[in-house]
Amino acid sequence: MSSPERRRLGLSLLATEITVLFRRKRTWAMLIALAAVPVLVGVAIKIAAGPDDGRGPSFLSQIAGNGLFVGVAALVLAIPLFLPLTIGVVAGDTIAGEASQGTLRYLLVAPAGRTRLLVVKFLGAAVFCFAAPLAVVIAGTLTGLALFPIGPVTLLSGDQVPIGEGLLRLLAMAAYVGVAMLGLTAVGLFVSTLTDVPVGAMAATVVLAVTSQVLDQLPQLQALHPFLLSDSWLGLVDLLREPPLWSTFGTNALLQLGYVVVFGALAYGRFTTRDVLA
After folding, report:
1. What is the pTM of this model?
2. Are 100 and 276 in contact (CB under 8 A)?
3. Using CA of residue 115, residue 273, residue 269, residue 22, what is the dihedral sign?
4. Are 184 and 84 in contact (CB under 8 A)?
5. Share of the chain above pLDDT 70, in %
6. Residue 260 CB coordination number (10 Å)
């Protein structure tokens, strides 16, 4: 098979994988659940305080004073549990789901190949990594528009930026979170190659994400923190400074790349030697 034919096959497999993923009711149920987070946040703050009443923590006052902060608050709230949970479900199902349904052996017929299938499964899950925080941001922005006034955004540094730049920064934060979840996706992909039980792979992936966050809170393990999967997850707030701390984005990307390389290699070693006929 020529190189152009291999590329066309790979793109065709990837398009099919993404189409199948977003045709599943479970995928849309998870996206809707994530989108519900900013809606609940906005409604709760609207009922509890209302805009410009001067009461409550400054964090809540910022949301009540500018609806664009609803998306920011929802992202911060979703990162510790909701996003890892949905990413764990998608990543844990990549290989184990096909194995449990008995379709894995059919996907491996030539000329698809195990390596190409593994890459396609990872890229399909990676698309969901970016779709998930984007759903939170879109729902948060719409909720903020509906419930609160919209105006220039006051950053953490005290500077103000126009609404348009505020929206761009919110999209950049969604991209930051998407990148932050790529390492967890690679971990889930590897776990998924170890079992034929997708629920087990999903649960193990989520447990590993929670464990990383717990370890990240222990001061006794401070030397280990920079290498933990979740260490840079909340660094998205550095994009609300003037100028934005893009170095945090780079650190996050480098850390996740390390996890993708390591656990991608482990997944490759396991999957390419696995007996799928057994």
Report:
1. 0.91
2. no
3. positive
4. yes
5. 91
6. 20
